[in-house]
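Severity: low
Component: inverse-folding endpoint
Summary: output formatting inconsistent between runs
Steps to reproduce: submit the following C-alpha cells with default settings.
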C-alpha cells in the first residue's frame, strides 16, 4: 500500500466540516487504507493550533476563529490559497515526523523551483520562505501513526487578513504569494505542481485522482 496514493480535489470547502472529515478518516482507517492527499481552498478563517496563544490574534474582526488539534500557532486560510491535507500512514511508510515535515517543505520548494522561484525552509520556523517572507505554512497532527492537517501555499489571494494576526506566532512576519514571485499564479497550476512533487517525494507508482468527498 505504501506505493499507492489517492489525490482528492475538493474545490472550496468549509473548514470545520473538512477538519471533522480528516479526523473521521484517520480514526476509521486501518492497515489496508490507501493514503490520501486532499487539495482544496477554504472560505476565510483563522485557525489556532494546540499551542496557540490568544495574544497572536490581534483583531480577527468578522473572520471566524477555529481552535484546532494541529501543531503550531495561528494562521489564515482563504480563497486563492492552496491547502493540501496530508493523510499518510507514516508508520507503514517508515517516515518519522521530522522527516515528513522536511519532505512537505521540499514539496513546496520543488513546486516553486519548477517556476524558477528560489524558496527555502528555515530550521527555526517551519514553513517555506522567499527572501525572508513566508509563502507557505504547515502544521500537522499525528494519531495512531497517521497524519492529518498539512500545508497552505499562498497562491493568488488577499493577504491583508494576515495583518490581523501574528502569523504562526511571529510578530511582523511578512507574507508573500507565489503569483507575485513568478511562481504558480492560479490554484489549478499550484495543484498540478504540488501533486507532482508529492508523487515524486513519496515514490508513488499507483495513483488515483478523484473529485469530491464521495468518489
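Observed output (run 2 of 3):
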Amino acid at each position: 500500500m505504501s506505493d499507492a496514493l489517492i489525490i482528492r480535489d475538493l474545490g472550496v470547502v468549509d473548514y470545520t466540516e473538512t477538519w471533522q472529515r480528516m479526523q473521521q478518516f484517520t480514526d476509521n482507517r486501518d492497515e489496508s487504507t490507501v493514503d490520501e492527499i486532499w487539495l482544496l481552498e477554504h472560505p476565510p478563517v483563522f485557525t489556532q493550533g494546540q499551542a496557540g496563544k490568544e495574544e497572536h490574534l490581534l483583531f480577527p474582526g468578522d473572520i471566524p476563529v477555529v481552535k484546532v488539534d494541529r501543531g503550531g500557532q495561528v494562521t489564515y486560510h482563504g480563497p486563492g490559497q492552496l491547502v493540501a491535507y496530508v493523510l499518510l500512514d507514516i508508520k507503514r511508510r517508515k517516515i518519522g515526523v521530522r522527516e515528513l515535515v522536511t519532505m512537505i517543505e521540499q514539496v513546496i520548494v520543488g513546486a516553486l523551483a519548477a517556476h524558477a522561484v528560489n524558496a527555502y525552509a528555515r530550521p527555526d520556523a517551519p514553513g517555506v520562505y522567499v527572501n525572508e517572507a513566508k509563502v507557505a505554512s504547515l502544521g500537522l497532527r499525528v494519531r495512531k501513526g497517521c497524519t492529518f492537517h498539512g500545508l497552505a501555499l499562498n497562491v493568488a489571494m488577499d493577504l491583508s487578513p494576515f495583518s490581523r494576526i501574528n502569523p504562526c506566532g511571529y510578530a511582523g512576519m511578512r507574507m508573500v504569494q507565489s503569483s507575485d514571485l513568478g511562481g504558480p499564479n492560479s490554484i489549478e497550476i499550484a495543484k498540478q505542481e504540488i501533486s507532482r512533487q508529492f508523487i515524486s517525494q513519496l515514490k508513488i507508482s499507483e495513483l488515483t485522482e478523484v473529485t469530491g468527498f464521495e468518489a
